[in-house]
Amino acid sequence: MYTSFDKVKSAIDNGTTVVDVVSHYLKQIEAKKHIHAFLEVFEAEAIQKAQEIDAKIKNNTAGKLAGMVIGIKDNLAYKNHKVSAASKILEGFESIYTATAVERLIQEDAIIIGRLNCDEFAMGSSNENSAFGNVLNPIQEDKVPGGSSGGSAAALAAGLCTASIGSDTGGSIRQPASFTGLIGFKPTYGTISRYGLLAYASSFDQIGPFTNTIKDAALITAVMAGKDEYDGTAIQEDINEFPIEKIEKGSLKVGYISDCLESKGLNPEIKTKLEQTIQVLKKEGHTVEPVSFPYLDAMVPTYYVLTTAEASSNLSRYTGVHFGRLADNVKGVEETYKKSRSEGFGEEVKKRIMLGTFVLSHGYYDAYYTKGQKVRRIIQNKTNELLSEYDVLLLPTTPDTAFKIGGVKDAIQMYLQDIFTVQANLAGNPAISLPMGTHSNGLPFGLQLIGKHQKESELLSISAYLMDLKQ
Ligand SMILES: NC(=O)C[C@H](N)C(=O)O
């Protein structure tokens, strides 16, 4: 019912209260409990906030997001609320501060309705790595919703909030958006402050929204974006708006990455949809050309060498002493750390910490970490070179549609989910997954656009245009 902010606002204009809107979502959350999108619902608090915002609306003092009900991924800090990154090691931990992104949403009167399930520390592509149980894809419940922001995708796709927030290190917003038929937007690295985002791989992590409309994606992202004294890697300017401009016929230069289109693992129906999209764009007079990006094979290895290295360092703070869960009956530092970490972290997280420690270790550092950094630079340079000639790059979001729960057992197979999404994180560019098709198996899938650094308006404008062309 309230699938976009415009719909919420028009209901409010016609006499619906924000309390009504929140109550609607709470009922839906209860009815769809079994998909397990939420780890916690802030029921009483959301109703109370809604009452306050109803009063503000009456007094004409409400913020830009009054009436917007948002779920946040469980790796975003929210003062006096639990945050666990879906890990046992942080079970019961309450945050003592609020992430900048969340704070800015609240400042504009968005209502935070709860914390959303995800893969533990954002490591995964199916949400099966959550320590608190997996999430069902609301489109077909025997399928995964994708990951790591699987709860964020499932909650919005099931109609449990107006929008949701996730984080994207290597595709964690775009891949679940593709699997659930949503828009998933990863802005340029640094557009949104990472302060209060539980770090996985700091030079990759970026917060972003899941929405049903481009207008909502632009609005929410702009609210969260802009400089922040708590994150030195954040953009140095204030951002008020990402205006959506009209795209004129024949004005675009689109490069489609032929290596992705020809990739062996790509589902033929996704390939066909991409080819059709290319034809539609050409018919509208745009320049659409194949471009070569010959590093597809290097993408996943480079991503996993570098992100695991960063993760091994970032996750060293979870000792059971400073944060979260302390193992029972332990003596001395070594035993305390060992037992708390062994019991607190899940298998995938442990695997990545070990891999990251290995690639950073003396003797292997140059062979893996330094080499990985060099390849990253080559990928960045090539991406920028292509985007100096084209407005956007067009490629699939995922090789296939959502898979069966438990259906992908092989780690490499799981990592290959990210083959088309990690380019934007390695290069830092903004990228978006747009719900462009439905497969004959009944599942949605997305197409992806990669834009120029800090040109979110341009990317969102082209996205809106492409989604309109589709209809
Ligand atoms: N976090 C992400 O962006 C997802 C990616 N599949 C990973 O496991 O690293």
TrEMBL record:
Its EC number is 6.3.5.7. It catalyses: L-glutamyl-tRNA(Gln) + L-glutamine + ATP + H2O = L-glutaminyl-tRNA(Gln) + L-glutamate + ADP + phosphate + H(+). Gene3D superfamilies: Amidase signature (AS) domain. Residues 20-460 form the Amidase domain. Pfam families: Amidase (PF01425). Transmembrane segments: none annotated. The active site is at K73 (charge relay system), S148 (charge relay system), S172 (acyl-ester intermediate). One of its GO terms (cellular component) is glutamyl-tRNA(Gln) amidotransferase complex. It is an enzyme of class 6 (ligase). One of its GO terms (biological process) is translation. PROSITE patterns: AMIDASES. GO terms for molecular function: ATP binding; glutaminyl-tRNA synthase (glutamine-hydrolyzing) activity; transferase activity. Signal peptide: none annotated. Keywords: ATP-binding, Ligase, Nucleotide-binding, Protein biosynthesis, Transferase. Heterotrimer of A, B and C subunits. Allows the formation of correctly charged Gln-tRNA(Gln) through the transamidation of misacylated Glu-tRNA(Gln) in organisms which lack glutaminyl-tRNA synthetase. The reaction takes place in the presence of glutamine and ATP through an activated gamma-phospho-Glu-tRNA(Gln). Belongs to the amidase family. GatA subfamily. This is Glutamyl-tRNA(Gln) amidotransferase subunit A. The gene is gatA.
